[in-house]
Every structure is written in structure tokens, then in C-alpha cells.
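FW: tagging you since you asked about this chain on Friday. Here's the raw sequence from the shared folder, copied in full. Didn't touch anything.
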Amino acid sequence: MEEQKQTENKKAADNLNEMFEAFGSAMGQIFNDPKLKEKARELGKAAKESAETLGERFKDEEVQLKFKEVGRAAQAFGKNVSDLFSESKDDKASGDKPSE
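HL: got it, structure written out here
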């Protein structure tokens, strides 16, 4: 049972690392900025190095609740970005300028 929990914690920490790396890489590509790409690599490396510690912290109920909040915030951010680009696409299709 404990081994399964450790595996789940490691998986969660690895997922967090992947998220940081993907987010940083995407931001670097969006802005075509080599410095931003390097900072993203550094962030991913730091997250990876701390994955073991994070895995241990995932056992704490309070930490689990906070990560649920993080998950909800990430979903809201993703939806807002998606909506923003959907609105921009709709505006272009209709010939309207986006409102400011």
C-alpha cells in the first residue's frame, strides 16, 4: 500500500514537472524569446530536482487541498485563454475589432 502511494506521489510530481516544462516551452515559443526558453528550462530542471520533496509533501492533506485549488485555477486559466482566442477568431471571421 505504501509503495503504491509513493508511486502515485512520484507520478504527481513528475506531472507537475512536465506541466512546468510544457508551459515554459510554449511561452518561449509564443514570444520567440531565447531568454524565456532558457528560464523555462531552468524552471523545469528546478521542478524535476524537487520532485522527490514534492512527492513526500503530496501526502499532506493540506497540500492535497491546495493542489486541488491549483488545478481549478489552471482549468480557469486554460478556459479563459481558449475563450480569448475563440473570440479573436470569431471577430476576425465577422470583420469586427475586438473590444478593449
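FW: Helices lie at 2-31, 34-49, 51-57, 61-94.
HL: agreed, and The chain is about 85% helix and 0% strand.
FW: great, closing this out.
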